[in-house]
Write a structure and sequence with these properties.
Blueprint lengths: L4 E3 L9 E3 L1 E7 L2 E2 L1 H5 L5 E8 L5 E11 L6 E8 L4 E2 L10 H6 L4 E11 L2 E12 L4 E2 L18 H16 L14 H16 L4 E2 L6 H4 L1 E2 L3 H7 L1 E2 L1 H14 L4 E6 L2 E7 L9 E2 L2 H9 L3 E4 L12 H11 L8 E6 H6 L50 H12 L25 H9 L15 H14 L3 H11 L1
Parallel strand pairs: 4-10, 12-14
Antiparallel strand pairs: 1-2, 3-5, 5-8, 6-7, 6-9, 9-10, 11-13, 15-16, 15-19, 16-18, 17-19
Amino acid sequence: MTNKLIDQPNESAVPAQVSVASIRATLAPKITFASHQNDVPTILDLAVENNSDNDLEGLTLTVRSDPAVLGERTWTIDRISARSQLRPKDVRVPLAGGLLDKLTDRLRSDVTFTLRQGELVLAEECMTVEALARNEWGGSRFMPELLAAFVTPNDGTVQLLLKESAGILTSSGRDGSIDGYQKKSRKRVWEVMSGVWAAVSARSITYAVPPASFETTGQKIRLPSEIEKTGLSTCLDTALLFAAAFEQAGLHPVVVFTEEHALVGAWLQPQYFPTLTVDDPIVVRKSIALKELVIFETTLATTGHPIPFTKAIAEAERQLAEENDSRFIYAVDVRQARRRGIQPLSSVADTTDTHTGPDKPRGSMPPLDAPPDLPLFDPPVELDDTERTPEERLAIWRRSLLDLSKRNRLLNLKHSASAIPIFCPDPSVLEDKIAEGKHIRIIVPPERRDAAAQADETIFRLRTGDDWSVNFARDAMDR
């Protein structure tokens, strides 16, 4: 830092010296082409302080970077009163969109703020910013909201995927139209999602291991066209592929992050979370329990053999169960991000034929499950109770009464000397057996807690979409 110094009267043997002025700035630690496209601020805070007993007049504050990822900007300052601070209201700086659009790897840039009075440099502050590759997301630590920029519904591969989804629905005797929420039916939305699931599963995508802690530090994203070319995708790549297809289909997608993993889903009716990101797993679980939101495990679409959509949903619900709350990171609501101005990453259309024709061999397609029992679409809130059907009134009363938070003691019974936890995947079946007067014997499951057993369970889940513990409990229930 270069500062003009002035002597301060002091009775000590060594006179103290202080700088006439100082600069304080806070920058976004990472920028990317998505930052440029969505006007994400680079300068988060900027202040100039006059540390002297005299007014400073005729000042200019300049910012420049090397390499020039930021465009140069100058603020003209008429006066800063003695011992006071000035904060420019407009701290926007242009980003070098052309450079950021071409970056294939991270680039470190030195950013320098210089305060001058005429030709005299009064203060200078240097810091660094990291420019990410064009297809790189910075993670939750730096830019969680920009994840929605990598949901690209207009990608050509997404269009092809939806066309295949329509064909799968038609060949299974379902309505082949991709019509979002237009039919006002949660079951219809579920069917569209299952059609997309079958189309992605049939593409023979190979799972790629993501970098460690990607949900926090970020990773490079394979956009749908690159997944189509390479046949590779991480869990986040696949989640964003599904999210793009759902958005193009007129649905509202949601991406959920757990520890070193990503899930995806969509709302069954046109709604969204009140905030762009949700870090409370109870909020997500409540939406799932109310059958408003469907979340599923994406990696089961990359196993190389067909797994039904219902098993992918069950696996996601297992991962989001209360006992796994410590692994929950946050959820990103793409529709809310669009409402906040975060738009899909733009790109120049590729006129070359990057997609294969209809004769490309595909993998096996999972059978389409029948939609589960789902509530009716929520009626408009402006309707009077007398204008609603009994089913609609019942759904509204149930939503208002159902408390799925930890305040509900029927759902949050703490372990104690008088409470024994029981693992039962089908409580209604257990209830029926007890009501019928059947004798129930509680058994201890086989011990499978070593590392090898856990690895076996993971492989079993990926191969079949089933949970070993759930299967064991169901077999025991039958006995």
